[in-house]
Amino acid sequence: DVKVTQSSRYLVKRTGEKVFLECVQDMDHENMFWYRQDPGLGLRLIYFSYDVKMKEKGDIPEGYSVSREKKERFSLILESASTNQTSMYLCASSFVAGLEQYFGPGTRLTVT
Amino acid sequence: DAKTTQPTSMDCAEGRAANLPCNHSTISGNEYVYWYRQIHSQGPQYIIHGLKNNETNEMASLIITEDRKSSTLILPHATLRDTAVYYCIVRVGSDTNAGKSTFGDGTTLTVKP
Questions:
Q1: Distance from CA of A87 to the nearest CA of B (A)
Q2: Which CA distances in Å does A53 have to A34, A50, A56?
Q3: Segments of B24-60 assigned E as strands
Q4: Across the interface, do A94 and B106 touch by the CB < 8 Å criterion?
Q5: Residue-wise pLDDT tens digits, B55-113
C-alpha cells in the first residue's frame, strides 16, 4: 500500500515562528502536493512539485514556501506563522501518469 | 477544471446501496471524474475515477451518463465505516494540471444502523 506520512498530527506554534511541516511518501511518486483544509472552504492547493527541486504555486501560496530536495520528501515552510494560517494541512502524492492522489493523515496546526 | 455540484448531505441505511450524485454539466472531453472520501480526522482517500465508461473496483462503482454531465458513485452495501464526506472532482488528465483543482464541500454521507 502507498504510504504518505506527515511529521506531526498536531502542532501549536506562536505568531512569528518559522514552521516546518514535512511529508514523506514511499512509492517513488513524481508529484507531491500541499493543501490546507478549512471549514466551508474545502481543500485548497498551496504548492505542488512534479520533480525534485521543481515547484509550482497553487491557489493560495502567499505566506508559504516549499522545498523538495529528495524525491520522497516535500516540506512546507511557514516563514513567519500567523493566526490566519491555523488550519489542517494535508500532503498528497501521485504517480506521473496517473492522477490518483494518496493523502497523508494531516497536520492540525494552531498558531496562537 | 469543470465545477461540480453535490448535495450537502445524505443518509443511508446500513447494508443498503448508497447512491451519491454529482453534476458536472460543463465537463470537457478530456476531463476525468474522480471520487474521493474523507473520514473524520483523516486525509482524503481515493475511491475511483472514470472518463466515459462505467467503472467498478473493490470499493465502489461509478456510473457516468452518456452526455457526461453527471455521475453517480455507488457503494453497494454501505457500512457504518462508510460514513464520510464524499468529494466529486473533475480534472484534466495531464501532469501539469494534476492536483490543481480544489476539492469543494462534498456530500456528507451518514450510514445509519
A1: 13
A2: 15, 9, 10
A3: 31-38, 45-50, 55-56
A4: no
A5: 999 999 999 999 999 999 999 999 999 999 999 988 876 555 555 656 777 999 999 99
